[in-house]
């Protein structure tokens, strides 16, 4: 009777769902014209438009909220499906009749109440929009097909389980709960699955007990590429399925079953069809639907790079939830910037996953939030870097949030298997996932320590998740572990809980741990290094929390101490790292100035520890000790590695030469190059410059000789020639020759014709022992082909016997004299040697701003310099074989402004004045200037002061056009703290990069660029008063990386790559008063990515790219005559450089040229002489940066620089910024941006709009401003004048600035402006806000 009653109840609820009126848009609530979404209308009104596919969505939506009350799995799913089908049938019938009558092809769906029209016109769309049943018409959406950037792996690795499985403690769930996901069916919408893969075949729901297969209800070929048998041509779906349920340690829930659809991603229709099939699977013929066979969990490792506001997939996921299906989504691989979550994972209704690596560090590629309507995204994070799983035919490592999401799906399978009462309870499951994750603070993109837009709720923990499941009568056990003598918490103590069930856990940093347990009596054993084990008994009561304290007795301790010294002749104390084996937290450091160390260990035990010098070139040492009741002292000597001889204060007896500064003095050369002419980069294993023999190609046959000066080897007993080389050879001759008579006669001591991989080559020359006038020649001859070359670097001639050099060590810290803060990155010089201060995060005893270097003995000057600080120095006596500590404090100006804001009340037509004082409270002179400022309206954004860190993310970054680049190269960043008062503006209406940006009157205009898929002609204007972007007239044609700027009220835009990826000569002018474009005179040549500047009312374009970045052309456009001039060539070829006008000249910096060489150079163009002059180099090589001129300085921010990653030199995207002052010919640091981007648009402000956040073309919608730099020049606020003149304030001195307002012609109201304060200090004073209230 109970069964019959339950069935009757289900039938009653089903009837209620079917009879409930579907929610619909009220008749005529939206005008028909407005129902056609803008993106679709643009497609339908395009010139020469072909029939366009589009979606018709209907307003009728059934109320599914009561479905959760149906306990029977099949009945619940059937009720949801039939309610949706009923709503679709009743609301779609009239439109379907119209389409049938017109002979139009379409697909009808019920899981989302929508029809996809295969091809239609604007007239058809307008006719359909007139129906009261239609809610809206939408453009189709493209989703990124899942690709697998994989590394192959062995079938079975050494680890018992993969790192991700162990990281989330899934193996502990197996062992402690006996739970492996049995009884749960997971599904995947992906690229398919290799169903007979050894790691997956046993779990396939279509496998029958006799080993045969039935694919009905278990496989949906949405893509039409596999037929009736599951397949996977890409591998992505097989990989994600392996992580969910794979055998042999690759899967989270290896006893769960699986089914699949290959709906991702031929089209959005295939995804919708897959989602609909999951609600009510069918047989292979698409017949006999059965909601009882739907999966409990669906993994979705796919999405779009651009956000999407179409509602169709959202309808599907809400229907899944109503039917009890838990869906997991990847959050996207568009990081490093904020607001990069991909759709549909970004939707509030979807549970999405970020990715972290084996070190629990968020992956650089992992997309950040926020998501839809500001919701925190991702929801949580899971392992997603170098995840090993199944692929067709084998196994492979892959990375992405696609790899992270299936860890969550598998964990939900474990949870629901352990607690069947939770099956179908989506809200409760989300709450348990959130509550059990490990909080991981990261404020980069907003949120809290417990829930932020980088990690979400934190890192996935399957064990804590299952621990929190409501299973039977349970209570909570709360454990605290403390020191029995002091009462202090003991962090990370091991816990063993035995009783009705057994559990093993680890206490937190606060010594506490809580977990649910079944009722009963338990024994709790706690252990920690350095303590005796302790136990306690406790009884767990249903529904209550039982507290238990375990107190551990500390073991007796002794002190281990000593010193670490050099043992190869110098004898000085060594800064060294000491690692004690098998001791938690057993890493200690010596003091750099005296080499002393001291730490405590529990007595009555044996230990061993390793000693490694922080300085390079020393061999590690080890110590074994037997600790009893007394303190132990061990002094240790470390010896230098004689083969490398790179330890400070040591060297070989001979002459060393590198090529960092080109051809060395005294060397003669015929045919060798030092400027890397073919951009092969240093492949010898060395760093910096190198010498290369390489022919330009036929018909030139190269015969090149590079000859050393005469060398004195008297006193050298075993001389040799040592050098680094890389020889890429076909049959060319590469000889090393030796002369003992000053170069009159030669003998070959090394002959090479075969290729040589990067190596250090040593050639003994005993015949030169004791000789004077010895010369060495590198002879590269009979070289015919320019694809082959010989690189040489780091040449040494002499005895390869490593010995001490006369001198001592100098070390210390560099700090700010005003604040006491240490300065990382400061340059320290002694004699001809240079070092940089750096953080020592692993050694808290030394702190940051630390430097060390070897110095010759004698009286020396130790000097330090840092941007925007006065240089500092100190004279010191450097003693041979001793250490000298020299701490330097650098002075800088520092401004205080009082008051920070002024307000004046006047009558209409009246005038008023106010004053503020600027005082230099620092310790060095400060240059100060003032200018009008237009105030950004309150609430536009938040300052990111003090939180931005310098980031450099290695990857493969191309300067060329959209279709010529590979996508999705991942990288890893690193950074140090920096100060950054950047402001986030309202997000751009679309994701964008390579856009052209101009500023006039405080309004920011952006046109063209790449929106992630296409070269666009769209344009928008940003009004800081309303904080809104508004559309402007489209460019006449799409443009990527055009150059442009405002001159007066006209925005001039020239060049760029067109939609056909061909560079253009066309020039257009946009009149902002009439919102119209006019075609103007063509430029002399077709280029994209040119530097731009405006001088004397004329537009300058410098260099650029076509199919390569090798232009040196400089063009000048005169709007008055609509003509172009060709000027003196830029001194270096390339594009993507920064340009601006300073003191009547055009300054340009950085750029990239053919072959990938990045420039640091700065040049200035003088129109009076038509010539370029070399200026100070940028601090780093840089291209693709945002830039502008402001208050007499050239500002650059972001872009691509060069780093060494994995032992090789590569490009890296950075958020660093720099400012150039022509008065001092010096670059200084700008605050790092809050977003790590390149190839975005930029203009006065400094405003940066859009850009790409990683390798390839992955645009973002961010917009930001560095508010201290407000304009290209003075902005005239008509009702305000500022009396302050540029001045230099000595320390302690001040200046008073008068602000005068004139309300003539102003209506009653409140007016806002401000005064910019320009300065050459490292602190950046806040602008002074000015408020005028007119009565």
Automatic annotation (TrEMBL):
An individual GO BP term: proteolysis
UniProt xrefs under SUPFAM superfamilies: Carboxypeptidase regulatory domain-like, Galactose oxidase, central domain, Starch-binding domain-like, Subtilisin-like
Molecular function GO terms recorded: carbohydrate binding; serine-type endopeptidase activity
Alphabetical keyword list: Hydrolase, Protease, Serine protease, Signal
Signal peptide: 1-24
Record-annotated active site: 190, 236, 402
The keyword Hydrolase belongs to this UniProt entry's keyword annotation: yes
Any coiled-coil regions, as ranges: none
Domain Peptidase S8/S53: 181-441
Family, per entry: Belongs to the peptidase S8 family.
Pfam families for this protein: CarboxypepD_reg, Kelch_KLHDC2_KLHL20_DRC7, Peptidase_S8
Protein name (database record): Peptidase S8
């Amino acid at each position: 009777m109970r069964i019959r009653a339950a069935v009757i109840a289900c039938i009653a609820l089903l009837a209620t769902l079917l009879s409930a009126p579907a929610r619909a848009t009220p008749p005529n609530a939206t005008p028909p014209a407005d129902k056609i979404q803008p993106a679709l209308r643009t497609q339908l009104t395009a010139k020469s438009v072909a029939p366009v596919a589009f979606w018709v969505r209907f307003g009728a939506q059934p109320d599914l909220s009561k479905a959760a009350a149906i306990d029977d799995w099949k009945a619940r799913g059937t009720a949801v499906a039939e309610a949706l089908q009923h709503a679709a049938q009743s609301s779609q019938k009239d439109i379907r009749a119209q389409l049938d009558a017109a002979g139009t092809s379409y697909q009808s769906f019920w899981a989302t109440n929508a029809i996809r029209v295969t091809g239609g016109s604007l007239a058809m769309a307008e006719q359909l929009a007139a129906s009261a049943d239609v809610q809206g018409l939408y453009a189709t959406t493209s989703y990124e097909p899942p690709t697998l950037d994989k590394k192959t792996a062995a079938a079975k690795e050494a680890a018992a389980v993969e790192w991700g499985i162990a990281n989330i403690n899934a193996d502990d769930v197996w062992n402690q709960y006996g739970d492996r996901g049995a009884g749960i069916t997971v599904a995947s919408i992906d690229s398919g699955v290799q169903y007979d893969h050894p790691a997956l075949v046993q779990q396939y729901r279509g496998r029958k007990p006799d080993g045969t297969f039935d694919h009905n209800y278990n496989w949906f070929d949405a893509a039409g590429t596999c037929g009736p048998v599951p397949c996977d041509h890409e591998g992505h779906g097989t990989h994600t399925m392996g992580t969910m349920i794979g055998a042999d340690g690759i899967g989270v829930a290896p006893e769960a079953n699986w089914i699949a659809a290959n709906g991702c991603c031929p089209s959005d229709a295939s995804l919708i069809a897959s989602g609909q099939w999951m609600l009510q699977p069918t047989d292979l013929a698409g017949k006999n639907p059965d909601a009882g066979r739907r999966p409990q969990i669906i993994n979705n490792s796919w999405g779009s790079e651009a956000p999407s506001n179409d509602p169709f997939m959202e309808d599907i996921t809400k229907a899944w939830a109503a039917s009890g299906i838990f869906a997991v989504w990847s959050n996207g691989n568009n990081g490093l910037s904020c607001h990069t979550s991909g759709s549909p994972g970004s939707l509030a209704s979807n549970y999405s996953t970020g990715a972290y690596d084996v070190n629990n560090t968020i992956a650089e590629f992992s997309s950040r939030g926020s998501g839809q309507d500001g919701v925190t995204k991702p929801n949580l994070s899971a392992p997603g870097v170098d995840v090993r799983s199944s692929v067709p035919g084998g196994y492979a490592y892959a990375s992405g949030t696609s790899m992270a999401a299936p860890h969550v799906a598998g964990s939900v399978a474990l949870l629901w298997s352990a607690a069947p009462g939770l099956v179908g309870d989506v809200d409760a499951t989300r709450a348990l996932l959130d509550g059990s994750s490990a909080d991981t603070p990261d404020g980069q993109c907003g949120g809290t320590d417990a829930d932020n837009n980088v990690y979400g709720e934190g890192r996935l923990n399957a064990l804590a998740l299952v621990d929190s499941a409501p299973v039977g009568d349970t209570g909570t056990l709360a454990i605290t572990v403390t020191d029995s003598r002091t009462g202090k918490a003991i962090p990370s103590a091991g816990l063993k809980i035995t009783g009705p069930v057994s559990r093993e856990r680890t206490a937190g940093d606060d010594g506490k741990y809580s977990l649910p347990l079944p009722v009963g009596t338990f024994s709790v054993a706690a252990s920690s290094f350095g303590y005796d084990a302790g136990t306690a008994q406790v009884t767990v009561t249903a529904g209550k929390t039982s507290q238990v304290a375990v107190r551990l007795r500390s073991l007796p301790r002794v002190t281990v101490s000593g010193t670490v010294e050099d043992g190869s002749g110098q004898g000085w104390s060594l800064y060294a790292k000491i690692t004690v084996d098998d001791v938690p937290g057993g890493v200690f450091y010596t003091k750099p100035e005296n080499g002393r160390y001291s730490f405590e260990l529990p007595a009555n035990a044996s230990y061993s520890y390793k000693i490694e010098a922080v300085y390079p070139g020393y061999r590690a040492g080890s110590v074994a000790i037997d600790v009893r009741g007394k303190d132990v002292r061990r002094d240790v000597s470390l010896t230098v590695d004689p083969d490398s001889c790179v330890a400070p204060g040591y060297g070989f007896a001979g002459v060393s030469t590198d090529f960092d500064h080109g051809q060395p003095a005294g060397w003669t050369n015929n045919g060798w190059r030092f400027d890397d002419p073919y951009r092969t980069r240093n492949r010898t294993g060395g760093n910096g410059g190198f010498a290369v023999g390489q022919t330009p190609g036929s018909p030139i046959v190269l015969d090149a000789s590079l000859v050393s000066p005469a060398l004195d080897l008297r006193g050298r007993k075993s001389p040799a020639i040592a050098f680094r080389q890389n020889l890429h050879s076909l049959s060319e001759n590469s000889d090393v020759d030796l002369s003992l008579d000053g170069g009159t006669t030669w003998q070959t001591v090394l002959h090479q014709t075969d290729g040589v991989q990067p190596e250090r080559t040593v050639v003994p020359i005993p015949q030169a022992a004791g000789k004077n006038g010895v010369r060495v020649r590198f002879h590269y001859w009979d070289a015919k082909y320019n694809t082959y070359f010989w690189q040489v670097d780091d040449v040494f001639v002499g005895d390869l016997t490593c010995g001490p050099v006369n001198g001592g060590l100098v070390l210390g810290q560099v700090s700010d004299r005003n604040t006491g803060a240490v300065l990382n990155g400061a340059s320290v010089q002694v004699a001809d040697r240079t070092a940089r201060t750096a953080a020592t995060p692993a050694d808290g005893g030394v702190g940051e701003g630390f430097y060390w270097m070897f110095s010759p003995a004698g009286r020396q000057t130790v000097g330090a310099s840092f941007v925007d600080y006065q240089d500092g120095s100190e004279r010191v006596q450097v003693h041979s074989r001793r250490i000298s500590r020299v701490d330097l404090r650098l002075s800088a100006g520092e401004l205080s402004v009082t008051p920070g804001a002024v307000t004046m009340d006047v009558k209409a037509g009246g005038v008023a004045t106010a004053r503020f004082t600027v005082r230099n409270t620092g310790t060095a002179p400060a240059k100060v200037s003032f200018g009008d400022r237009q105030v950004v309206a309150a609430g536009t954004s938040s300052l990111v002061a003090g939180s931005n860190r310098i980031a450099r993310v290695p990857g493969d970054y191309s300067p060329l056009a959209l279709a010529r680049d590979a996508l999705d190269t991942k990288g890893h960043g690193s950074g140090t703290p920096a100060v950054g008062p950047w402001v986030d503006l309202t997000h751009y209406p679309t994701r964008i990069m390579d856009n052209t940006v101009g500023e006039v009157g405080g309004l920011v205009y952006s046109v063209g660029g790449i929106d992630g898929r296409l070269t666009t002609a769209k344009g928008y204007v940003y009004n800081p008063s309303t904080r809104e972007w508004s559309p402007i007239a489209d460019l006449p044609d799409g443009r990527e990386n055009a150059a442009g700027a405002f001159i007066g009220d006209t925005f001039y835009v020239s060049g760029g790559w067109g939609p056909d990826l061909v560079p253009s000569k066309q020039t257009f002018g946009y009149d902002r008063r009439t919102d119209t474009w006019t075609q103007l005179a063509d430029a002399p040549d077709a280029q994209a990515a040119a530097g731009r500047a405006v001088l004397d009312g004329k537009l300058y374009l410098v260099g650029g790219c076509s199919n390569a970045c090798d232009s040196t052309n400089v063009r000048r456009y005169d709007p008055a005559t609509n003509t172009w001039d060709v000027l003196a060539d830029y001194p270096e070829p390339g594009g993507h450089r920064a340009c601006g006008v300073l003191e009547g000249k055009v300054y340009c910096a950085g750029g990239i040229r053919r072959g990938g060489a990045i420039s640091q150079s700065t040049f200035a163009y003088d129109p009076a002489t038509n010539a370029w002059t070399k200026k100070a180099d940028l601090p780093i090589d840089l291209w693709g940066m945002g830039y502008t001129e402001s208050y007499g300085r050239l500002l650059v921010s972001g872009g691509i620089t060069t780093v060494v990653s994995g032992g090789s030199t590569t490009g890296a995207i950075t958020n660093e910024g720099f400012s150039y002052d022509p008065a001092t010919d010096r670059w200084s640091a700008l605050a790092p941006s809050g977003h790590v981007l390149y190839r975005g648009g930029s203009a006065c402000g400094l405003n940066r709009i859009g850009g790409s956040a990683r390798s390839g073309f992955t645009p973002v919608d961010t917009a930001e401003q560095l508010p201290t730099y407000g304009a290209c020049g003075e902005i005239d606020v008509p009702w305000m004048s500022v009396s302050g003149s540029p001045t230099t304030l000595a320390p302690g001195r001040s200046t008073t600035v008068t602000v005068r307002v004139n309300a003539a012609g102003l209506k009653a109201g409140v007016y806002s402006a401000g005064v910019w304060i320009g300065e050459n200090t490292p602190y950046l004073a806040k602008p002074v806000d000015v408020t005028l209230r007119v009565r």
